[in-house]
Amino acid sequence: MTRALAPASVDAAALELLAKLAEGFAQAATSPATRRAYASDWRAFTTWCASTKLAALPATPDTLALYLGHLAQLGRSVSTIERARAAISVAHAAANRESPSKALVVKKTMEGIRRTVGVAHKHAKKALLEDDVARMIAAADGADARAARDRALIALGFAGAFRRAELVALDVADVVFVDEGAVVTIKRSKTDQEGHGRRVALPRESAAFEHLEAWAALRANALGRGKDGALFVALKGSTHGARLSPAAAADVVKKYAEKLGLDPSLFGGHSLRRGFVTTAARAGAHERAIMKQTGHRSTTVLRSYIEDAGLFEDNAVNDIWRKA
Question: Out of 151, 163, 219, 254, which one is annotated catalytic?
């Protein structure tokens, strides 16, 4: 492959370019998380180019192919490598330069990476099933505000199948109590960047409704927060603080997983969402009903959550080889 020499001031130029491309990133990706990820990917690419004496902007197709191969050698996942490729393409578009991403050598490199690395969907955290969640809620005993908040967070995270970011983004006004139960409005999510929103129902008979109602009342009255602001807030004694962060929500799950004698490193906020999907699938719930609760738009993605749920049900081995 042909190397294009980078200018001696590539580090300074890269930093200056990052600032100039901020507006382009904002237009290309409405999600703040995606903008941060793209900026990080571009920074990593320019740093690598500086170390290898290659030009980052414009980058040649050979340079991009080399970099993608470098990421694969570092053990990066296919999705991470694809995101880096997208970030580099967006940076070129923002600078009115032709993107090297569409070149044949880049496409062939990605094909080879997919075959070598694989594209199997991996879940970083284990699922927490219905019994696990019930035990965690029971472990959050006590009448204090922290215990009430934790019970509501765990129960709602499971029954609503919420992503942790969705869970902590909820405001009190997003929860409406009706005769049948509670209606929770998600204003924006990972798969709804335009903010169309979706509503999730919690039947009055569910444990999630019970704990959510109790926490909402405590938060409004005992903590003096009324109906304004975040639903889940940080607590110190009897006082309230800022909105819980996604990481703090995950820490709540880890805390009670550890209380159950489980390895906390294996669990997090996503464990509740994945656990709901797996539990519902094992109970025979229709995919359409599960997707209505989770907000999934793709049955392929949904099935990646519940793949393990049916491994032992309707197993062909049972039909051909049973114990004597």
Answer: 163
Report yes or no on 318 lying in a domain: no
pLDDT tens column, 58-115? 999 999 999 999 998 888 888 889 999 999 998 898 888 899 998 999 999 999 988 8
Q: How far is CA 31 from CA 25, 37, 303, in A?
A: 10, 10, 25
266 and 217 belong to one structural domain: yes
- Kindly state whether residues 162 and 252 are assigned to the same domain: yes
pLDDT in tens, 109-146: 999 988 877 655 454 578 898 999 999 999 999 888 89
Q: How far apart are the first and last CA of the chain?
A: 63
pTM over 0.90: no
Q: Is residue 124 part of a domain?
A: no
- Residue whose token pair is 């025979």: 284
319 lies in some domain? no
Output the domain CATH number for residue 57. 1.10.150.130
**How many CB atoms are located within 10 Å of the residue 263 CB?**
10
123 is catalytic: no
Does the annotation count 163 as an active-site position? yes
Domain that holds residue 65: 10-117
Which of 85, 126, 270, 274 is labelled catalytic?
270
Active-site hit among 85, 125, 151, 273: 273
For the chain, the domain total comes to 2
Question: Of residues 38, 67, 256, 305, which has the active-site annotation?
Answer: 305
Beta bridge mates, 185:
199
**298 and 170 in one domain?**
yes
Has 102 been annotated as catalytic?
no
Q: How far apart are CA 218 and CA 153, in angstroms?
A: 14
Residue 190 annotated among the catalytic residues of the structure: yes
